[in-house]
């Protein structure tokens, strides 16, 4: 086996380091955004419970608008499938009282397996949306999952 010169080793090390830092920064940023969203929701709840009627009415107006968009979903269990060159993912989405209450991955025929995207169904229930965080290393599987959920939600619309 041929020896690598020091310059080549340094370049490879720098490239790997920059990829690691980019991944870390993206993950850290996503966690910060989630934390900010959680804090914003807590602040909104605190405002709604205060005696300030203008804050309460603004919050109620926002909640009413959110409820009306959720109520467009008809109760039931719907399925969807997303696929690409590495395989396909099928999901089952349960709607109760116009809200997403459960999401289950019913089939995963991708290269990387279901364990890499196992956190995504919970994100759909929490966010009430097919928009989920992309799983590093399982980008295409994440896209398949989003497509499958979006397809199921289209079926559930009134």
UniProtKB/TrEMBL annotation:
Residues 76-85 have a biased composition (Polar residues). It comes from Bacillus xiamenensis. Residues 85-156 form the FMN-binding domain. Residues 35-85 are annotated as: Disordered. It holds the Pfam family FMN_bind. InterPro entries: FMN-bd. This is FMN-binding protein. Residues 47-66 have a biased composition (Low complexity).
């Amino acid at each position: 086996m041929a020896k690598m010169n020091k310059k080549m080793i340094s370049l490879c090390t720098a490239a790997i380091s920059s990829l690691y830092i980019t991944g870390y920064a993206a993950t850290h940023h996503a966690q910060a955004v989630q934390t900010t969203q959680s804090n914003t929701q807590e602040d909104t709840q605190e405002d709604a419970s205060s005696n300030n009627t203008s804050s309460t009415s603004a919050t109620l107006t926002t909640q009413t608008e959110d409820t009306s968009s959720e109520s467009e979903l008809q109760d039931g269990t719907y399925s969807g499938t997303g696929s690409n060159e590495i395989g396909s993912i099928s999901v089952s989405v349960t709607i109760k009282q116009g809200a997403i209450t459960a999401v289950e991955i019913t089939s995963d025929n991708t290269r990387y397996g279901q364990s890499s995207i196992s956190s995504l169904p919970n994100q759909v229930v929490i966010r009430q949306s097919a928009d989920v965080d992309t799983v590093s290393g399982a980008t295409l599987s994440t896209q398949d999952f989003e497509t499958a959920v979006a397809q199921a939600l289209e079926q559930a619309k009134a």
